[in-house]
Amino acid sequence: MTSPEQARAALAEARRVQERARRSARWFTWFLVATGAVSIAWITAMEAVWPQGRLALAPVWAALFLMAGFWMNRREALPLGAGRSLMAATLTWFALYLVVVGPVTRWQWGTSVPAWTAASAIAALPFFVAAWMRRRA
What we know:
By secondary structure, the chain is mostly helical.
């Protein structure tokens, strides 16, 4: 049987390990925010700044996203449900850009930088919402 001192020590160790895991996984919130910010810059660059370079910029985005995924999986701690959060945000972002934001902005404003910045910020909302939800958890 364990003594009360051993139980207290075990609880203290559990709290320490829990806090260390929480600190180690805190990076994921900022990863989501950075992904949203980079997607705003990428869409604006691709649609307004250099529209003729779409075919060159799309593979660059895909390569960056793939490298970020590899980097993410090599981290010390990955929060529970991180992959699901990232996948849901990415799919929602892609659907918003492909089906709603992209066609409407291209049709109404052409290559206007302010319009594409605002539109890409709307499309990037899933990343920011996922980061906010993670921060609250």
